[in-house]
Amino acid sequence: MAAPMTWKRLVFSGYTPAFSWVFTRITDRFFRTHERRRGSAVLLLAPLLAEADSAPLASSRPPGFTGVEDFHSRFHWMADHVPAFRVPGGRVRILHSPDEFYQAMKARIKTAKSRVVMASLYLGTGPLEQDLVDCMEEALERSQEDHAPDLKVSFLLDYTRGSRGKHNSRTMLLPLLQRFPEQMRVSLYHTPDLRGLLRLLVPERFNETIGVQHIKAYLFDNSLIISGANLSDSYFTNRQDRYVLLEDCGEVADFFAELVGAVGDVSLQLQPDNSVHMMEGMVHPYKGNRADFTALAQRRIMEVVNTARVRQSMLEAECLEVPDSDGTVPNDTWIFPLVQMKPLGIHLDEQVTKRLLTEAGGDSVVYLTSGYFNLTRTYMQLVLGAAADYRILMASPAVNGFFGAKGVAGAIPEAYVHLARQFYNKVCQLGQQSRVLLHEYHRPDWTFHAKGLWYYVGGRERPCLTLIGSPNFGYRSVHRDLEAQIAIVTENEELQMQLQQEQEVLYQSSTQVSNSTFNQPDRHVKLWVKLVTPLIKNFF
């Protein structure tokens, strides 16, 4: 047994600079496929060593912003890239706690009549997760009381994370799949970047660093929760995230059901015997030709996006003369779904986020949060070069999700401290301390996983725009994983108040970062962590 363990340790050392360079050259030579549109972006481990630098976009912000009535015109350029759904702001509700998120899902599963769609990184294996599965079983049982049951339940999870260990997401869902094979679907997305020698050598758990399905969308008939939270007990109890509930918003729900279905179509399908296979006519993600898989997946997913964008554009044109289709419920809020799937050549979220950061003018304040503060170089340049004020909220070491983890993962909070200090030093070097403020989230016995932003314009007290969903503004979110979030632009004062309250409550649990912050004993970063961080920061 000694020899195999030594070999595994050698594999683990692939995260050292020397071995990673050699390993990259080997994987490039044997398993890289040439794609005209993505070029070297497909190099399996090339991002380990460097990140491409992008110049900030030129600003094209509409001049002469005067107030609330211009929110729509100021941000409606997003409709050139993604679908624009107009909804009543009264149907959009911000959820504030893990328990509220959990209870909202359980309640809506129990009353679902036609569809339940759950997209997450994984489903946990504890009693709370089992209760969620039991709710689905009860709903499916009720539906079978009819001779023609209508309820369909669909899961989209990540293959590597959902298959980790003997008792995992797959085994949690197998009983439902075995009992309700005609009503139940479980799709397991597998990144095309994990293939060949790389897939053989990278151990379980670490193989998730190559790329995962990271979308978090939970749909019940015509209602939808968009979040950054996974389906796991900590996200239901003491892991702070963000959650927005869209009630009775059928067109938005249809879009996300179709989006998740499209990703599911190009994913491995779980079978009742726990085997997996691809749907007929689909390319295998790691056994098939990578370029063929990417082209098919991109075509399938962008068909959903483009069809919805054209349809919503036509509906908007038809409604121009009658702004409120319902005289009692004003459609004063716009929902823009933003999808980022760089391994598949889809980068809509990146395009929109860049422009938002670029056009954040001197009349704006942007509150930006990430549970894992590791901005891409482009986003960092846009923040440091903008005219807007920025208030950035990140996790303190004690509320970092990796705090106390065993092995190498236990050093990840130190790496984030190191990255935060580097960013803070850049802010100070540029004399931006009064414009760009860093805050650290603190809460005993909790962890922090919230991400997104709130956009205040014109000196107003309430935000008119928020981004909420799965992206973290880091390299992984932009280049490796499948991500989705929504931009909410609203003129609804009640919804603006909810967004303001959400932002203020999160920041009230924080302290502002200063030079003294990094001199505290718990901010000491070991020398080896400082040396390794530049090599591995694109993987976490």
What can you see in these coordinates?
With 540 residues, the protein is of the alpha+beta class. It has 2 domains: 227 residues, Endonuclease Chain A (Endonuclease, Chain A); 237 residues, Endonuclease, Chain A (2-Layer Sandwich). The chain contains 17 helices and 21 strands. Helix 4 packs parallel to helix 5 and helix 10 packs antiparallel against helix 11.
Which structural class do you get from the secondary structure elements?
A: alpha+beta
Biggest sheet architecture: 10 strands, mixed
Number of domains: 2
CATH class of the largest domain: Alpha Beta
Distance between the termini: 31 Å
On the 0 to 100 scale, the average pLDDT is: 86
What radius of gyration results from the CA coordinates?
23 Å
What is the tally of helical segments?
17
The total of beta strands comes to 21
Low-confidence stretches: 1-69
User: What fraction strand?
Assistant: 15-25%
Task: Indicate the CATH topology of the largest domain.
Answer: Endonuclease, Chain A
The 3D shape can be described as globular
Q: Could you give me the name of the CATH homologous superfamily of the largest domain?
A: Endonuclease Chain A
In CATH terms, what is the architecture of the largest domain? 2-Layer Sandwich
- Overall helicity: 25-40%
Domain PLD phosphodiesterase: 209-235
Enzyme class: transferase
Subcellular location: Mitochondrion
Function: Functions in the biosynthesis of the anionic phospholipids phosphatidylglycerol and cardiolipin.
